[in-house]
Amino acid sequence: MRQLRILALLPILVITGCHSPYVEATVSNRTPQPMRLLEVDYPSASFGTQSLAPGADFHYRFKVLGSGNMKLIYTDAAQHEQKSDGPFLKEGAEGPVTITVSPEGVHWQTSPGTTLHP
């Protein structure tokens, strides 16, 4: 009888599945020059790439452990290090974060559920 109950619950578990919150980040280079040594810092870790060509996107998915601000650091075509402070993330935040680097500057875009203020 117990096995029948477990088997009856199995389809419900498969349908609902497990959910782990994560942030889906996209860095977009909308400048006419490549970006070098790109790094995005977020609470407890960072990710990046050696270069990002003009018009290209870099995607990365991560889980937020801890709380703090995001930050973008990269080297521009003139070999100058550029920095931009991003949104505050709290542990458990989830949703998209888009970082667009254009000739006018760096633009951060989040959805309402992504940034959780302290």
Compact description:
Helix content is 13%, strand content 51%.
List the helices and strands and how they pair.
Layout: H1 2-16, E1 23-29, E2 35-42, E3 45-52, E4 57-62, E5 68-75, E6 81-89, E7 95-102, E8 105-110
Parallel strand pairs: 1-7
Antiparallel strand pairs: 1-4, 2-3, 2-5, 5-6, 7-8
Description:
The strands form two sheets. A four-stranded mixed sheet has the order 4-1-7-8, with no helix packed on it. A four-stranded antiparallel sheet has the order 3-2-5-6, with no helix packed on it. The N and C termini lie far apart (49 Å). 13% of the residues lie in helices and 51% in strands. The chain is built from one helix and eight strands; from the N terminus they run H-E-E-E-E-E-E-E-E. The chain is elongated and about 65 Å long. With 118 residues, the chain is mainly β. The mean pLDDT is 86. It has one domain (19-110): Immunoglobulin-like, CATH 2.60.40.2890. The longest helix has 15 residues, at 2-16.
Features:
118 residues; mainly beta; Immunoglobulin-like; 4-stranded mixed sheet; 4-stranded antiparallel sheet; 1 helix; 8 strands
